[in-house]
Amino acid sequence: MSDDIREQVRRKYAQAITAKTECGGSAGCCGAGSKATEAITGGLYGAEIEGLPENLLATSLGCGNPTALGNLHAGETVLDLGSGAGLDVLLSARRVGPSGKAFGLDMTDEMLAAANANKAKSGLTNVGFLKGHIEDIPLPAAAVDVVISNCVINLSADKDQVFREIFRVLRPGGRIAVSDIVTTKPLPAGIRKNLLAWAGCVAGALTDEEYKAKLAKAGFQDIEIVVTRVYDLTGPTAAKTVPGASPGELAAINGSVVSAFIRAKKAASPLAPGRDYAIRPARPEDVPAIEALLAACGLAAMAVAAGLERFLVVDRGGVAGVVGSEYTPGAALIRSLAVAPAVRKAGVAAALMDEVLARARAAGGSAAYLFTDTAAGYFARRGFVPVERAEVPAAFLASPAVSACCSSAVAMRQAL
Asked: Over the chain, what is the mean pLDDT?
């Protein structure tokens, strides 16, 4: 049965991209007969698709925008399962920037050809497309930070294996952020056995509770399912979405077929300083790596070489983290805290902060200050409190590092 389903899905999507229509030429995977641009995908991408090939959104066969759902960060590695013509991969590549990477995985030669053509048109270089099945991902363990997917997992006949593979390729602390079709109650057996309905994203859909249970069984935590659209199966095009279903069957399941955003996380594995990495003063040979890491994290890489004595780095066979500091009598300024995606949520940032604050206390400081645009919550959890800029020592306000902060940066202080 599973091979039959896979071949039916492959042929339908090959036809779809060849004809530049959705899900086999008549009904969109999630559009219930409407054009793909009018399905749940429509309106969710907005201006972010500007500059990409003109027909890319028209060949999107999805039911959401997982690139926005995933909250992608610079320097991360992203994998899109069932990447189709490549829209979500190219958008992901933009979000993670040159220091990151976006992979797309698809089993259909026609889709891969279209995706690679779109990659060439986009000019993006941090993109790669792989041929394979989502039940057997051709990447090593702990290779990616985020797995996204757009209305594809429901097509698999072995979803337990899909979730096991996702868990395998995610790094500790990694996350899954997918758009998919789910049901709020079980579908009739006749619909589940219909291969055409399966290729149309309905027959293979899990219930929301089944989805959560299978993710948990694979090892995921913090599982969340949010319904984004409820599909009407009573209209004149419903028979194209669920071929073979009687009007009575369609009425019985109406309102129970939905598209949803699904999020889940793989638990982080804490790393121990001294065992898994070393924290040490920066060296001249570290400068390029420090500058690249700061830039990837959206921080100003100012005068690193000239003020190298102000920086500590995480050495894990290369620079995996950095923090800077400046001193004035009785106080320290903490700045330029950044860690590589591979070690985020593993306690590395906390260890760097502990070390730099310990050094500030040893130097006679009674207070530590910092400025942040995006991480006020993180620093508040570490005991920093917001203060007015006028409360910050004048020497720190005159520092080029502070001058580089935008006017919206929050000043924070912690007593040492």
From this structure: 82
* Residues 125-155: tens digit of each pLDDT: 999 999 999 999 999 998 999 999 988 898 8
Task: List, for residues 164-219, the tens digit of each pLDDT value.
Answer: 999 999 998 899 999 888 888 887 776 666 645 545 566 678 889 999 999 999 99
Q: How far apart are CA 73 and CA 4, in angstroms?
A: 39
Structural domains in the chain plus CATH codes: 2-265 (3.40.50.150), 278-415 (3.40.630.30)
Q: 321, 340 in Cβ contact below 8 A?
A: yes
Distance between CA atoms of 6 and 132, rounded to whole angstroms?
12
- Give the pair of three-digit tokens for residue 111: 């889709």
Let me know: does 358 contact 334? Beta carbons within 8 Å: no
Measured distance CA(68)–CA(72) in Å, rounded: 7
Report d(CA 91, CA 89) in Å as an integer.
5
**How far is Cα 255 from Cα 150, in angstroms, rounded to an integer?**
21
Q: Model-level pTM greater than 0.85?
A: no
Q: Which two tokens stand for residue 361?
A: 């206390």
Judge contact between 89 and 102, C-beta under 8 A: yes
